[in-house]
TrEMBL record:
GO terms for cellular component: cytoplasm. This is WD repeat and SOCS box-containing protein 1. The keyword Repeat applies. Pathway: Protein modification; protein ubiquitination. It comes from Camelus dromedarius. PROSITE patterns: SOCS, WD_REPEATS_2, WD_REPEATS_REGION. WD repeats lie at residues 5-46, 47-88, 109-143, 153-173. GO terms for biological process: intracellular signal transduction; protein polyubiquitination.
């Protein structure tokens, strides 16, 4: 054992390293989303926004985005460098108020995974559905039936999603495919080496800045 990170007051459900391993996200009970500096093994910040236990997390391939899944029926897409929520993927409509989001319902989100194209996110929920999302759209681009889903992961090339269930099975789907634009590929290349605050200091037009910051 090398180190122990202390800060959670209850269960830690999931952890994920950023692509460059400089940052770790850990999520758990009591709405916890913690970001850790892995050079110093210290906490960077707590991300506030969820209303129930947070059970899964995953970074985008360029490290510019962080997805978290919660029993509050939501998946949030964060900027891990600023702590801002950039996108919300709801699994219950209309979205529950905070007092009801903290209770039992049949839309608990169990897992979330980023595709390696940096454009798509998959989520599993207790409503017996697997959903495929685009990071620039607030509705699923495709859905498929899945009972008792627990976890999911994309293949390295992003063409297949694997999902594990309570009944001891692993299911596979061919995922929605889209050729990334040249602009998106350039954005990912830049964001792999530049955090948000450095991007914001670039002498570039505001529209380009918003695009590089995933705010459009």
């Amino acid at each position: 054992m090398m180190k122990v990170l202390r800060g959670h007051q209850n269960w830690v459900y999931s952890c994920a390293f950023s692509p460059d391993s400089s940052m770790l996200c850990s999520v758990g009970a009591s709405k916890a989303v913690f970001l850790w500096n892995m050079d110093k093994y210290t906490m960077i910040q707590k991300l506030e926004g969820h209303h129930h236990d947070v059970v899964a997390c995953d970074f985008s391939p360029d490290g510019a985005l962080l997805a978290t899944a919660s029993y509050d029926t939501r998946v949030y897409i964060w900027d891990p460098h600023t702590g801002d929520i950039l996108m919300e993927f709801g699994h219950l409509f209309p979205p529950p108020t905070p007092i009801f989001a903290g209770g039992a319902n049949d839309r608990w989100v169990r897992s979330v995974s980023f595709s390696h194209d940096g454009l798509h996110v998959a989520s599993l929920a207790d409503d017996k559905m697997v959903r495929f999302w685009r990071i620039d759209e607030d509705y699923p681009v495709q859905v498929a039936p899945l009972s008792n889903g627990l976890c999911c992961a994309f293949s390295t090339d992003g063409s297949v999603l694997a999902a594990g269930t309570h009944d001891g099975s692993v299911y596979f789907w061919a995922t929605p495919r889209q050729v990334p634009s040249l602009q998106h590929l350039c954005r990912m290349s830049i964001r792999r080496v530049m955090p948000t605050r450095e991007v914001q200091e670039l002498p570039i037009p505001s529209k380009v800045l918003e695009f590089l910051s995933y705010r459009t």
